[in-house]
Design a protein that fits this description.
By secondary structure, the protein is mostly beta strands. Helix content is about 0%, strand content about 50%. The protein has no helices and 11 strands. The strands form 2 sheets. Strands 2, 4, 5, 6, 9, 10 and 11 form a 7-stranded mixed sheet that branches. It has a 4-stranded antiparallel sheet with strand order 1-3-8-7, with no helix packed on it. The N and C termini lie far apart (about 40 Å).
Length: about 120
């Protein structure tokens, strides 16, 4: 089993930055791809960013590319989402996810999910 715990969410003004962290349990962290998804009220959960098991391949949604950066530290069993130039439309609950496979942009591919962390961007 893999347990994921997100942290780092909060309230920030438009143009500000936040860094989300996702701490994973287990000794096989380096064996699975990680993803960040978000879900705003009344909307479906959507892909934000993903990173492969080694950290050498990343993928981003068009809406965040150039503003968000995903990274991972396999020695610390943690992955990160650095969010810069935040916009009110980035407001959502952000979820960390993992699965034993290649990088993927679809919700259904991921086996393990965190509980989510709220990000609110004020205008």
């Amino acid at each position: 089993q893999v347990q994921l715990v997100e942290s780092g969410g909060g309230l920030v003004q438009a143009g500000g930055s936040l860094r989300l962290s996702c701490a994973a349990s287990g000794r096989t962290f380096s064996s699975y791809a990680m993803g960040w998804f978000r879900q705003a009220p009344g909307k479906e959960r959507e892909f934000v960013a993903g990173i492969d098991m080694s950290g050498s391949i990343t993928s981003y949604a068009a809406s965040v590319k150039g503003r968000f950066t995903i990274s991972r530290d396999n020695a610390k069993n943690t992955n990160y989402l650095q969010m810069n130039s935040l916009k009110p439309e980035d407001t959502a609950v952000y979820f960390c996810a993992a699965w034993f496979g290649p990088i993927d942009r679809t919700v259904g591919a991921y086996t393990y999910w965190g509980q989510g962390t709220q990000v609110t961007v004020s205008s």
